[in-house]
Design a protein that fits this description.
Blueprint (H helix, E strand, L loop, with lengths): L7 E5 L5 E8 L2 E7 L2 H19 L11
Antiparallel strand pairs: 1-2, 2-3
């Protein structure tokens, strides 16, 4: 099964809901939310999976850092 590495950010909004956001490509943004940080990340994971299924897995460049 292919893996996709996606950077993301997680913040708590003014209502106390946790929101996780990521860019799958420069044109495709996905979001997850939940009552906890972990729930928001899990919801984001679901959104990323659906977006990749719908649009295809984007090309990736892997760079080894010293």
């Amino acid at each position: 099964m292919p893996q996709l590495h996606v950077p993301y950010v997680v913040e708590q909004d003014e209502d106390g809901t946790w929101v996780a956001e990521a860019a799958l490509t420069p044109d495709i943004f996905v979001q997850g939310e939940g009552a906890t940080r972990e729930a928001a990340i899990e919801d984001l994971r679901t959104s990323i999976t659906q977006a990749a299924t719908d649009s295809g897995i984007p090309e990736q460049l892997v760079v080894d850092l010293p």
